[in-house]
Amino acid sequence: MIANTARxxxxxxxxxxxxxxxxxxxxxxxxxxxGVTIDDLVAGMGVGRPSLYAVFGDKRAIFLRxxxxxxxxxxxxxxxxxxxxxxxxxxxxxxxxxxxxxxxxKGSARGCLMICVAPLVNDAEVQRFLQNAASGGAMLLERRxxxxxxxxxxPPDFPVAVRAVQVTDLARGLAMRARIGTPRKTLxxxxxxxxxxxxxxxxx
Length: 204
Prior knowledge:
Tet_transcr_reg_TetR-rel_C_sf, mainly alpha
């Protein structure tokens, strides 16, 4: 979780931190990390330069906060899509379809910030964050597959770890295809077919 930034003494802030970070997300989406300047963030976030530095820090610090907030929000929704359905097939399909829907959401940039923008950032902390996020996603999928074993949806010898990584790779691939303009309808159909491939030949 992101630690709450300590509030500065003095006059109350005239802006919403969460809203400002959401605006910063769009700035990084539109220009990429390297292409963004502090002036871009000042204009895009609607925050004066002194307040921006005092509350959020420099460009790198802002991007890290944006990345963490983005990952927490998307991760919670992805976990809900994965663990809400009762059947394993519906869970995997729901997880992949959520990634498609998120990557093709109207009013937002196509794709995924963690897949299409963050990997290009030459920063060790950003790369560690991405690696940890990928590992965490795979662990959630492993847990869901093990629940499927307990429920009798798949046999005890199902390759849980391998299939978990494959599902995360499929989710990334769908997001990348969304980024280059593949229609949502096509991606949703592909997510359904990918689910069957992941569960074969063990699907009940």
